[in-house]
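Hey L., structure's done. Input below.
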Amino acid sequence: MQSRVTATRFLFVSIIENSRPWQRRLVGGLVAIVVFFVLVRQAAGVVLDRWWFDSVTTAPVWRIRFVAQTELAVGTGLLTAAILGTSVWFVLRVGRYGVAPQPRFIERYHERMGPGHRWLLVGGTTYFAYHIGLAASQQWQLWLLFQHGSDIGQSAPVAGGDIGFHLFRLPFLAAASSYLRQLFLFTIVVSACAHLASGALQFGRRGQRSSPYAIAHLATLSAAFAALQAVHYVAVARPSIATNRVGTFDGPGFTERSLTKPGLLLVALFAVAVGFAAVWLARTLQWRPFLITLGAATFVHLAVLVVLPSATERFVVAPAEAERQLWSIEDNLDATRAAFGLDEVDIEPLVLASPDDVHGDVNGDGAVDALRVPLFDLAMMAPALQVLSGTTATRIVDVDIDRYDIDGIERPVFLAARSASRTDLPESGWVQEHLVYTHGDGVVAVPADVTDDDGRPDVGALAGTFDVDHDPIYFGADLDGWYAIVGTQRTQLGGAEFNGNGIDLGGFGSRLVLSLAVGESQPVLSSELTADSELLYRRSISERVGALAPFLSLDGDPYPIITDGRITWVLDGYTTATTYPSAQFVTIAGVPATSGLAGREVNYLHAAVKATVDAETGETHLYRMDDGDDPVLDVWARIYPELLEPLDQFPDALRSLVRYPDDLWAVQSTLLGRYHVDSAEQLFNGTGRWAVSAAAATTVGEPTTSPAPPVDQFTVLAGNSDGFASVRPLGPGSASNPTSTRDELAALAVADHDLAGGIHLRVAAVGPDAVPLLSPQVAQSAIDADPEIARAITLLNANGSKVQFGPMTPVFAGDRLVWVRAIIVTGTGSSPAPRLFGVAAVSNGAVAVEGTAGEAIAALTGS
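Output:
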């Protein structure tokens, strides 16, 4: 007869068992208070969120999101509790502990756990269901797209079905399938362990058999899992071959069409057979049919979906890839262009003079452009302007370039907002942070193409021109999580007064809600607040627009526009997807870390919205930028019909000053190097393959291999009225294979800075008689090798100063391409102010340095 194990209880079980009733009530009361406080804080956050939405828009954004999240949280929570809870209840009902002899480790477990075994199962089920519900609520965007998405009238190659199904329904089906299969798998594991602990399952003990109820229970769960797996093969995995990522070009190819697509039906049939075998096991307790069927299904899965596709790719496709895959590459070419907005690129040859013609007409088409070349690099301007034009409690963290009419001429202008900065407050404290230093201090405007008499950025040249030098900026960049309260007894910095609509804080109730939501007692206790106090919440541009339109991925650089004496922030929003059939996936790099696209992998990206935010009042508008070619935005417009405004309502005063979306251009200009070709044959062979040219070094003696950044400039290559565009050089070769690149210019990619946002590709001529064009790095090498410049740089790079370079800008002097770059001298301290030494112009290997870009080009060309 087996001896009974005796062991002390686990500590937490012993404490509960040995506690007195009043102690249990006390602990329970304390736990209830903590839970109540947490729930009240969460509720306060929800209420504050609702108030903010009501103060910003009349569209039911908050309600639609809240309802969708509630539906998912409640639905998945209840379903999880039902499936897992039912299994736990059944385990507790059929447990055999205390009825039949148990293994020693089971006896010891029950001796130490006692009633804690039941507590663990019930509590674990409750906790798991709660957290699954919370996690599911985060998929509310997939749920809304699933409900409101529709067909767009285009079929997916090979996989079949409308592209709308792949964009809107497939992502939610995949998430639901994953959730259900993981839930049943987890339930099977928990049930098996619980049956084992309860003694209903016996392994390797003579004379002891498992409970038929336990076996039937596990077999029934296994049958349900097999059925879900079969549905997954057909409804999710089969259409998902549309985004197959095996091989160089994404999308379904020969293997997916010939093997994977029909093979998924076969493995689905075997999964159904496993389900029937599991039902048979539950009814008869005969294991052999189930194990044989399960083994056969596993073998077929591995053979059809793993081994055979790999062998086919290696031995059938690879030896004759062009013959077998060219149709798939054609699909990839068309889909990628449509998915990334590259299907209407204007491609023209770049016609230049022969290398024997050393003279170019600086007074020709490019004359005005030569006089409007930006001199300083944006990266060096923020610390410089902070030194030259900073004010108390503010910091210049970002500088943008735009074009403005100055004395009748469109000229490039640097704009830098003096944003409120917590780290720069002269005194810290809740009152100072939230009641006094509530805003920034206007915008610094500096000509980008000229300097002052000392060669430094001319911060005084445009003072008073735009009448926003010291306007309060309540809403701006880098204000995440920093709320402000206006209309208090404290005087704001500079005596400013807020003239917009905030959240009313005149009553005790609203102040209590704020205190609970942000976890600070000051709002409800402070005597500084009055009946006229208002809360300014979500003051950061990205935070504000992101909360209002969470379905958008936001650009990393909101930029200010000055019109009619007011500052308006503009921020681009993008729609993205990862299920666009046959389109190439892109890992997004070369964008700011603050971008909503940074580091993401997508195969669909469109410029969808331009958001405008008034810097003083916070008034926010979202304008559609598409012309009906963005099906993802179409669905969100149906979900939020009052949120998005049509393009024709975009303010006229802003139209001529908007920019092409920066982060989109970073992706498109990279893709253009590969997807500018006309045929699948060219795409497959790599003929005409380009990559973004390597950047010219910005510091002497520090070569770089990073891609050249776009340059915002006036150029004759632009297709808009004022000629202001973003230009990026492309060179022959592949970025993924550095040895294939050649240091010459293949094309210039141009994006117009206007509301239409056209893209142009100016392609250099090729062939034995073609004019060789310098790349940015070769042009920089010519500058570095010039003896006079080298001597000057040697002298300047000493005694606490160093030489840097401005942007490498392509300018056309008549029919010659000239690279223009400013030579800058800066200090080596923490707050350097750059000073212009001269401007270098390079063409056909010849270099000239003068005081201005126009003079340098004239000296170079002899005109």
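Residues 145 and 614 are 31 Å apart (CA to CA). The mean pLDDT is 89.

-- N.
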